[in-house]
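Structure tokens please, single chain.
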Amino acid sequence: MSNMNFMEKLLDGVEVEWKALGDDDFIEVANSGRRPVKASLRVAGKTPYYGANNIQDYVDGHTHDGEYVLIAEDGSASLENYSIQYVSGKFWANNHVHVIRGKSGLNTRFLFHYLCIVNYTAFLTGGGRAKLTKGKMVEIQTPIPCPENPKKSLEIQAEIVRILDTFTELTTELTTELTTELSARKKQYNYYRDQLLSFEESEVEWKTLDEVAHFANGKGHEKDISEDGKYIVVNSKFISTDGKVAKYSNSQICPLFKDDVLLVMSDLPNGKALSKTFIVDVDEKYTLNQRIGGITVKNKEEVLPKFLHYFLNRTPQLLKHNNGVDQTNLRKGQILEVKIPIISPAEQVRIVSILDKFDTLTKSISEGLPREIALRQQQYEYYRDLLLSFPKQEIQVGVEA
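Here you go.
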């Protein structure tokens, strides 16, 4: 049986009655137990302390114990994707969330799934910090399928919960699997890179970077940033995200050319960007920002730019300057004294070819991970809307005095 046929049968002929969250025959509002505590006064413990946007801390004691839905009262990170949280067990709720749960005729998990698709805009008051007052919150309607048959109603609610929770679990499993695979690929890549780029001191000739390349520091572009700029401003964020996060400028203050190797010179203690490199793929596309080093190979027949890019990327010769306490600011002299192995062009080509393949494989998973997760989320939202889109009665939203 297809999913559509199954769902059509599940909801075939189902009548629905709408109940306000203030209907105490179906819903318990447990706001009276909420208790805000300043961070400085909280006693550390194992109980999650909830605010408008998920867990804020872990404390000793609890305000509630059981299965509840938390609706942001104010401070939701997004008004379009309003903050709704499902909690179970002992927890502490502050006064930035409404605390509710279903009674005997309403499955609390079903209530949670439905409240995730409510448009809260009509119920919010206030300006910059929109607020969902209790008076408005209790006006929100929730569907009760088969209200004349409580047993069947709860069975339908439970089945809808099962289907939607299954989609959620599948998304979580996929995320875990792809994240694990990505981590394994990165470890494999790093292992082979280290093997391929490790040379004994006596095996090959060594030259300093100063001997094989020219070096130039970038310049500040803060006053020239433009969303529709012609040139990509190469800064540490651009390099550390492999080009996914970029700023633009119409001024090419520090031009870059194909095969230039760019290196991050400054980072926080134990940061992941220091000495990370990027190789320019085309002329007239980039401009170099300050604290990024621009390296141009003097003789490409001696040192291939792509080989130098891989060799300098997170090289231990530069990472040793990170003391783990202070921000690291590499100096020009420190960079130019890095020793570069001089090996045959054919061997450089072979190494570059292998690392290119590993790099492509790793990036394919990195790029595919958010895409696959987004597809699963879209699938979940499609079936959620299909299962929870009951015919709705006309509802008058009252004005709170």
